[in-house]
Amino acid sequence: MPPKEKKRGSRALAPDILSNLPDNIIDAIVMRLPLRDAVRTSILSKMWRYNWCRLPVWTIDQAFWDMTNNAISPTTRFTNIIFHLLTLHVGPISKFTLSVATLGNCSKIDNLMYFLSRNGIQHLVLQFPRGNLYKLPSSFFTCSQISHLSLQNCLIMFPPAFKGFEKLVSLELCDVTIPSKFIGSLISCCPSLEHLVLHSTITNHIQIRAPKLKSFDFTGKLIFLSLEGVPLLEKLSLVDTGYSGKAGKCGIAKLLESFPALKHLHLDYFSVRFFAGEVPKMLPFALNSLKRLHLSEFSLDELDVASCAFYLIKSFPFLQEIEIESLTILLLRDTG
Fold it and tell me: Which residues fall in a coiled-coil region (predicted)?
């Protein structure tokens, strides 16, 4: 190509597309990236340098953690991350996830909680490794906008002035240490609660009143169970992984009578044993709303357990699906 044509071609170069994208388009792109990749976009263009600082969703997980300097201590690494978050972030943070398997207790986490409580946090996930129980600071209980909360390996001790989370819709507690007398108080102080998950959290009594509750998933040791004032409950899962043979009985007829809207019921072998002996040959009422029954880790060899399951099935006239997982085989039958 002649020199003149080369010069003409160089003048026709397209403008820098990345630098000329509207801010809302840049924000939309950055928001769809993992946090570590969103931070890296700062090198693409001057226009992109601080866009990640406006992210309303932050996830500090193992993948993000592994890209930080592993030559320094975990406490210093986390402190550096929090320093950049506190100094560079602009605007509210609607969702924050902290899930790092190698991160132990760190005083700077309290600073992070204080920052989140003052920046409109709505969806909070805190997952700590086993053996590193994190005590939630007082600032946690001031998160007035929170609607979704998931905690793992945390210690909850209520301050005297705590009035509850009025906007909380979803609560998940896994391996959380909380005085059993407070679990009912916590739930009753969340009038908008619709979804509740308790895994290996409560070891003795469960007494719950939640007028808007739609699903309850429990895994743990059943000793006493009371679910009252839950007229909207549609999904119930009770999986007892710690049955000792000495647990007190809870009448299943009385329990199920409280759930007129129940559609999905999941019981395992241990939770059925919990109820076995308390079930009449036919429940005194028909649960017409139930569509799906799931029996897991089941053994048909024990007559009382098998009879309990059979009596339950007869009391669900509009049952459409039965799933039975035995210890050796899986039986799936569609009764529709």
Answer: none
